[in-house]
Amino acid sequence: MKIRRVFLVCSVVLVLIVLALAVQPAMAQKTHATQKRHGAIPAGKTCIDCHKAKFAEWKASPHGANDVQCTACHGEVTAQSVAATPALSTCETCHAEQAAQLKSDAFMKGKTCVTCHPPHTFKPHKKAAAAK
Question: In angstroms, what CA-CA distances link 26 with 33, 60, 86, 122?
């Protein structure tokens, strides 16, 4: 009976550790860029050559309309990785006022711009559009 209890306790502890480790990377993504492996881009090719659907989404977004290049958010693809999800500090480079507002809002704690605004398809806020 004692062996079963020890086994059960060890199993529960192991499950809790696994769950804690699984949650940790998700929490880190809030303030740090999520890096993703990426092969080298062959000479003469650009992001659009492989990412046609994302390019079309981006082109229709405010980032596309303002010609914000892929590398502005994702970085250069030189180290076999790319920022799949940019960090808040990346958005803050151009959107300092909005980032400061996001940081000061208790409801938004732990969130970044891309939590609510998919970067390739986002639309301006209705409030912002009405103010123009």
Answer: 11, 29, 14, 22
